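Q: Got a minute? One more chain.
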Amino acid sequence: MRCFILLLALLVTAARADDTRPFNPADYPAGVQKALHYANEECDSQDGGAVTFAPDTVRRIDLTGDGRDDYIVDFRDTKCGERETTYCGTGGCVMNILVTLPDGSVRPVFDGYVRSYKIVASPVKRGAARTVRFDVHGSYCGGFGAQACVKAKAITATPFAFKQP
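A: Always. Here it is, folded:
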């Protein structure tokens, strides 16, 4: 019995070790790597030092409903040297959404500042696009910075942006 418990403990530890491997931009398609390269360019322009990506900077998820991985690149926890706010401001943090096309290429469909986001529950209809709710700067709803402003968008291969009224 002790051997079984020891073996189980080793397996759990090994599984956790796999989860903690460092973030590697090379693990993602060229289009996602290009979006990540923005962090390096921005940090260099501010003489900030080395860029450190959080393990969850890139999220793989099928947003378009076509069965292919799409990508959300969220710079919320990305650091430029010792600076933690290079990619964030009063309007939130830089976020990109990239979708995978039928030919395997990746297309950016959103690039903007977002305070937070939530992916709405999966659609009932198979193959339907997922909707994302974005919490953005109040000016996108005709208000000012601190005011709540929520926008929702079904993610497709068509690029979109939020516009101030």
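A: Strands lie at 51-52, 58-61, 70-74, 79-80, 88-89, 92-100, 106-114, 116-119, 131-135, 150-154.
Q: Perfect, thanks.
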